[in-house]
Design goal:
This protein is of the alpha/beta class. The protein has 3 domains: about 120 residues, 3-Layer(aba) Sandwich (Cobalt-precorrin-4 Transmethylase, domain 1), CATH 3.40.1010.20; about 90 residues, 3-Layer(aba) Sandwich (Rossmann fold); about 80 residues, 4-hydroxy-3-methylbut-2-enyl diphosphate reductase, catalytic domain (Cobalt-precorrin-4 Transmethylase, domain 1, 3-Layer(aba) Sandwich). Helices cover about 35% and strands about 20% of the residues. The protein is built from 11 helices and 13 strands. α2 links the parallel β2 and β3. The longest helix has 17 residues. It is flat and about 65 Å long.
Length: about 325
Amino acid sequence: MSQDGSSLHKPPLQVLLCSPRGFCAGVVRAIDTVERALALHGPPVYVRHEIVHNRYVVDSLRAKGAIFVEDLEEIPDTEAPVVFSAHGVPKSVPEEAVRRHLYSIDATCPLVTKVHREAELHHRRGRDIILVGHAGHPEVVGTIGQLPAGSVRLVETIADAERFEPHDPGNLAYVTQTTLSIDDTAEIVAVLKRRFPDIVGPHKEDICYATTNRQDAVKRVAPVVDAMIVVGSPNSSNSQRLKEVAMRNGCPYAVLMQRAADIDWSRFEYVTRIGITAGASAPEVLVQEVVDAFAQRFALDIKVITGAEEEVFFPLPRPRRGSEAAE
């Protein structure tokens, strides 16, 4: 019962909180990179693309003096730091930063960098390279941009995998975007392996630990709830995949929302049990905001459904000045 006794008049609602949820180590590292640059150098700190795909995070950093741009051309000649987002960038971006002697800091997630290195290794070995991912996503643009044009070709769907025609079927490799659906990706890779038995894959799956763990937690909760809320931004790939995983695993209604203000209360009028999770770029404060909104209307019974324990930590990136990087 709430302190004012009002829960006596509220319908009961069980809330299953998925764990792990929210920030991953790569997101924490990227946000901390911008925060540290602001603390050390003062504003402005320029950030190429959203540091992570979350409006709340971006707006919070903007209020502290971060300036977000989509292209280095938008940045004047400056001594201010320039941070590359967690999603990674094509090689042409740091090369341009070096040419302009910009003080750049690469906050690319180390697990994305791992995919870049794999692609580069395959290219050196003369292999055709398939990238399983979503066209236009910054991570995909960054990975394709590590190598000369045409070296990496994108496969998005099972149909794409069935149609793909390599230059050399016997010398083929694949890498994947880190934030994909585990199950969808497995189906695409299965087609590629059936068609091209000698295809070379990553030694360790490219889909990152955080994506895997959050999807596994949703799979546990989705079949036993009336609705699933995924806290995250619509341009967040891993958040979109959580919504899809919930629906694929038996949840009758799953919705992606950024804030409690986005809740369509008419969809929760008759529910008795809901699941809540958050994408890897969504802060816990937004999860609590949603929980608090439900507590205003329902008498909550909250249970945490715990999956994998996460203790991953990535050290902050080392900044570099363009003139130093060119040496």
